[in-house]
Amino acid sequence: MRPSIKDIARLAGVSTATVSRVLNDSPNVSPRTREKVLQIIRKLNYVPSHTARSLRRERTFSIGLIVPHSADYIFSFPYLNLFIKGLSRGAREKKYHIIFSTEDENIMELYEEFVRKRVVDGMVVVDVSDGDPRVALLSSLKLPFVVVGRPSGVNDYIYVDTANEEGAYEAVKHLLKLGHRKIHFVNGPSHLSVSRQRLKGYLKALEEAGVALDTRFLHQGDFMEETGYTIVKELLNRGDKPDAVFFASDTMAIGGMKAFEESGIQVGVDVSVVGFDDVPAALMVKPSLTTVSQPICDVGYNVARLLIGMIEGEDVKSVVLPTKLVVRESTVGGATVE
Amino acid sequence: MRPSIKDIARLAGVSTATVSRVLNDSPNVSPRTREKVLQIIRKLNYVPSHTARSLRRERTFSIGLIVPHSADYIFSFPYLNLFIKGLSRGAREKKYHIIFSTEDENIMELYEEFVRKRVVDGMVVVDVSDGDPRVALLSSLKLPFVVVGRPSGVNDYIYVDTANEEGAYEAVKHLLKLGHRKIHFVNGPSHLSVSRQRLKGYLKALEEAGVALDTRFLHQGDFMEETGYTIVKELLNRGDKPDAVFFASDTMAIGGMKAFEESGIQVGVDVSVVGFDDVPAALMVKPSLTTVSQPICDVGYNVARLLIGMIEGEDVKSVVLPTKLVVRESTVGGATVE
DNA sequence: TCTCCTGATGTAATCGATTACATTATAAAA
DNA sequence: TTTTATAATGTAATCGATTACATCAGGAGA
User: Fold this and answer.
1) Which of A31-35, A84-88, B321-325, B334-338 has the lowest mean pLDDT?
2) Beta strand B290-293 with A159-162: parallel, antiparallel or unpaired?
3) Is A60 within 8 Å of A54 (Cβ atoms)?
4) What domain count does chain A have?
5) In a domain, B284, yes or no
6) CA B187, B190, B191 angle in degrees (round to 5)?
7) CA angle, A84 then A86 then A92, to 5°
8) Measured from the CB, is A53 under 7 Å from any atom of strand D?
9) Considering Cα of B116, then B119, then B124, then B126, what sign does the dihedral take?
């Protein structure tokens, strides 16, 4: 069997209390004793049991992440790997573990399990909406949690988000600068707060440039490729060729590009297209896609940092990270100035 | 505070042992007592502490997954999300949790932590190579583990893999059927066993068709887009236009496609290209990419199933899941028969 | 030398469950 | 009714750490 603290105590000729003090860097241990204990510990390759420590300390040193595998979610948040990478780094720095699960249905059941069984000290909540039952549960049990993405209603909880409004603003400003005026906007589902924020950015850029809003230029999508394709097809079918289209996801933008090309309209020459997210495919399509890149890895890192801060009783504040416009081939082509 | 088993026992007027029996569906509890205890449990919303149970049972009911973020890995295994989804489903069916981490360096340190601290009951090992120190550690501590992908050397441990050889075989057979003879193969790093397997499939298809192997047609890549691009460029620069190229990853295939198009060679018409993996971008590029699809989600599911089986003392066997050739536009074009 | 203080160490309770063993209640058999 | 088998329940040890409190040793100061 793997050694326990008792074995170490026995072999070092001290009590378990002393071993524990050595393990936790307590100051009240004589150098001689400490050395003796450390020697035995090294010899036996002893590492204290995480479970026992958790039980005694009434803390699991773990944070929970449950990813809903709803379509909305996957496409509004394609960078799961990067997010997790950042989250993992942040957790590891503070010696926390991540308990991970994906779930389609019964998500509340899984939440109940994580929370009431005391499997985690805090939760990462993704894809949150108004009146979310997960938030209600966590609040009622006073379990720390951090929301990924900005909640739309009251802001009485901590979140990490990217500057969606500014990102959209920059994208549209870029299109305006190229001389475009008929700039369509294919947004995400309107119930998501990212959608509201991006719309704000779109409107702000137009207003600032003194371009009147044409509501016929606003479309609601769902982040899926097919939807981008369909919306552009419809536009073209009714003879309504835009100067530019700003899509709220790269995936939709790629669908839209296909529709343009099928109609013999060359993206990056006859029309400009901008996406959002900077997914790997944005670089692989031809022409490569101008898009708004989000620091997803940093989002993950900050979520971990804030959440663990909350767990440890610090006073933390929500964070909004900057987005960046990445100009590629889908917009550098000549502009069709009216 | 959240209620403990003692609170339930007190309120129900029984001992903690009886409450525990109710919780664990022990047969020796009278219906009357059971009902009384369950009533209190429901009233207080009591759920037993996972930590306490783990300590007593000397089992954490968790499996560990550490994903190395090395470039090789990411590109040879782009479907992390899907894999995790399957793994998660498998784990949840057996009421296990997944402890997840990503790691660049110090991966052994993290392994030591997971294993010696007894954070997990078993490990999922990805991206394994010959004489892997992780495998050595797990073996020496007798901690159950399952390897994702087939080890190349001795098979004295359990793995879940896809039929890489058969996948490559089908892909090349498809190209041969189209009439291609000069079929180049851009493989992955030769130290990976997937690469060896795919090479085998390539060779087998050629042999079966009576096509002699030209070793100049074999190239070593690294799964990255740029490498695919470079290799094709070099080929074309020395005036060596292939009939078809089979890439060991979609990402390389997409790079290769770019190189062809830049040289005015139309993929799907003048040359055929086949990839491997079926990443989302395979559908988004133009022409869409013919590729070998792997059931990544099932791989994850089976890994969980086997690993938990091992932990619970069952006698489990390695699994190889079938791949599927997905024919798209990059190969349906007319073949350049010699 | 004696007292007092401080630093080092030990004792034992504790976290919240499970479980071997002991005990008691209940029903069947004699 | 008494004996005996069995079902139901309780007692207390246990998993492996942490920690409040007790104790002890040794040095400073009187």
Assistant:
1) B334-338
2) unpaired
3) yes
4) 3
5) yes
6) 145
7) 95
8) yes
9) negative
Q: Is A177 on the interface with B (CB under 8 A)?
A: no
> DSSP labels for B242-295?
-SEEEESSHHHHHHHHHHHHHTTPPBTTTBEEEEEE--THHHHSSSPPEEEE--
Same domain, A204 and A247: yes
Instruction: Please give the Cα distance from B146 to B87 (Å, whole number).
Output: 12
Are residue A182 and residue A35 in the same domain, yes or no? no
Q: Are residues B197 and B111 in the same domain?
A: no
Q: Look at residue A338 and tell me if it is in a domain.
A: no
Note whether residue B221 is domain-resident.
yes
**At B27, which CATH number?**
1.10.260.40
A117: contact with B, CB 8 A cutoff: yes
Q: Is the peptide bond before A287 cis (omega within 30 degrees of 0)?
A: yes
The answer to whether B15 CB is within 7 Å of strand D is yes
Query: Which of B74, B88, B225 is facing A101, going by the closest CB pair?
Result: B88
Q: Confidence band (pLDDT; 50, 70, 90) for B276?
A: very high
Domain holding A141: CATH number?
Answer: 3.40.50.2300
* Nearest in space to B250 (alpha carbons), one of B219, B210, B294: B294
Q: What is the DSSP string of A165-177?
A: HHHHHHHHHHHHH
Chain A hits for B60, Cβ within 8 Å: 51
Looking at the structure, do residues B105 and B138 belong to the same domain, yes or no? yes
> Count of A–B CB contacts within 8 Å?
120
Is the same domain home to B176 and B138? no
Contact B118/A49, CB-based, under 8 Å? yes
For A61, A107, B98, B213, the CA distances from A113, given in Å and listed in that order, are 17, 10, 14, 58
Lowest mean per-residue pLDDT among A201-205, A312-316, B183-187, B281-285: B281-285
Cβ of A20 near strand D (distance < 7 A): yes
- Which of A65, A79, A100, A252 would best serve as a mutation to test chain B binding (most B beta carbons within 10 A)? A100
- Does the pLDDT value for residue A71 go beyond 60? no
**What DSSP string describes A280-337?**
HHHHHSSSPPEEEE--HHHHHHHHHHHHHHHHTT-----EEEPPEEE--HHHHSPP--
A97-103 and B97-103 beta bridge pairing? antiparallel
In-domain check, residue B142:
yes
- A118/D6 CA-to-C1' distance in Å: 39
Mean pLDDT of chain B: 91
Distance CA B192, CA B201 (A): 15
B234 and B139 part of one domain: no
- A38 and A75, same structural domain? no
CB interface of A with B, residues 279-318, below 8 Å: 280-281, 283-286
**Using the beta-carbon criterion (under 8 Å), do A110 and B91 form an inter-chain contact?**
no
DSSP state, residue B335 = P
Q: Tell me the pLDDT band of B5, cut-offs 50, 70 and 90.
A: very high
Section A205-215 average pLDDT: 96
- Provide the domain limits for residue B91: 62-162+296-321
pLDDT value of position A155: 65
Measured CA distances, A221 to A192, A195, A288, B229 (Å): 12, 10, 22, 34
Considering the domain architecture, whether residues B89 and B158 belong to the same structural domain is answered as yes
Residue B76 is predicted with a pLDDT of 53
Q: Do B310 and B123 form a contact (C-beta atoms < 8 A)?
A: no
The pLDDT-based confidence of A335 (bands split at 50, 70, 90) is very low
| Cβ-nearest to A118 among B49, B84, B280 | B49
B80 interfacial to chain A (CB closer than 8 Å) = yes
Q: What is the pLDDT of residues A143-160, one digit of tens each?
A: 999 999 887 665 688 999
Average pLDDT, chain A: 91
For residue A301, which phi and psi values (nearest 5 degrees)?
Answer: -60, -45
Q: Is A123 helix (H, G, I), strand (E, B) or coil?
A: strand
